[in-house]
């Protein structure tokens, strides 16, 4: 409950307003007295600096990069000056004059740097009142724990005419995603020799931006395949230059997919990247009868995930290609994911074959497949990894859950790969991790002679770059061959 009071709030018997920390109360123009002041105190945390950078877009390395900051005039990371100034705004808007105040102007002088760990005390003092328009001038001053003034100035506001009480808004809980499991892989990919990527039907602004991004990141040199007029229109809409980027003109999306396959077969591109055509159309050209991109291995999709709550990269497969995979399909899906992780330097990936339960149940086919895959790995039909299942999700990723259930397994609680029962389960699991667990999810299709980058319009720049980096690393491996039955 909250209320807007156009009359004075209730008072106690001595005439003072009762204190309620949940209520914001203002001081009207008539109530304000020259020399009246209000303050707040904040300790500067690293999260404060990073969150301000994320919201403002100010990524000056003096605020974010300790190595860079060590070379500047201060010798250490400093908070954004406007972060400190924002504290002044907080006092004006919530304390003095408080709710109903209109901020007209602010003079600022930044006198000393503010570093992580500093305690900043912000004080505003009423210095002048002007009856016309209820304008008030307030001295604004910020000091650190040593009593040094780090910021001063003068604020000009319009003070409220009427008393206001307002229930303070509960702020959302905010956490920073500091996991970057793929940063090292991106660095490795940049160091590899330049490769070419076929961008298939890049006829939307998002697809054009993705093509330019992987070029600017030093990952691939793009070849744009599609109707030239549509490609140029998309580039204009995305406000990117096509200077120096090759275009392979074809009449439509189907022809673009076919041409991209031809270029990959000829060794002229090392990867295919989905543009604005449908995934089925691109993959249909890859696995079409007679396609030389096909191998004996079934193609499958992996979500390579970076999760704040998990200590290492995690792969979910298959969440996008194989709808109801058979046991033979699952073997290939498993091997594709294993090969990718081995490419990334994981010598013996741990594969958890997921089901709803961790025991074999003849009424649940997924548990039978899981048990079979475990035996197949033990007998060399799946190579390069430890495979165990059936495992439920909790005991696949949580050592505590596995211990509680008495599961003795080389995989339980520490899986690198989650092999799901079918596409529906995989897609739901992946999307839950993305939207509820703040996962970054790089998407690749494996099992053909070249990796295929699948991105969506909702993907962040970080995710698109990670997908391209993983594709470049995967492209360094020889074409996969089917493991003998």
Describe the structure.
The structure is a single chain. With 485 residues, this protein is an alpha/beta fold. It folds into three domains: 23-164, Thiol Ester Dehydrase, Chain A (Roll), CATH 3.10.129; 178-296 and 452-473, Rossmann fold; 298-446, 3-Layer(aba) Sandwich (Isopropylmalate Dehydrogenase). Helix content is 32%, strand content 22%. It has 15 helices and 18 strands. It has helices spanning 46-56, 61-64, 66-69, 81-94, 183-191, 205-216, 228-238, 253-265, 279-286, 327-343, 365-378, 393-397, 399-404, 423-436, 461-474, and strands at 23-25, 37-43, 102-110, 119-130, 135-143, 149-158, 165-167, 195-200, 220-226, 246-249, 271-274, 300-306, 314-317, 350-354, 386-391, 417-419, 440-446, 452-453. Helix 6 packs across helix 7 (228-238). The longest helix is centred in the last third of the chain and has 17 residues, at 327-343. It starts with 22 loop residues before the first strand and ends in an 11-residue tail after the last helix.
Write a brief caption for the model.
The protein is an alpha/beta fold and 485 residues long.
The total beta strand count reads 18
**What value does the average pLDDT take?**
89
The CATH fourth-level homologous superfamily of the largest domain? Isopropylmalate Dehydrogenase
End-to-end gap? 68 Å
- CATH fold-level assignment of the largest domain: Isopropylmalate Dehydrogenase
Spatial order of strands in the largest sheet: 10-9-8-11-18-17-12-13-16-14-15
DSSP helical segment count: 15
Outline the biggest β-sheet: 11 strands, mixed
Question: Could you say what the CATH architecture of the largest domain is?
Answer: 3-Layer(aba) Sandwich
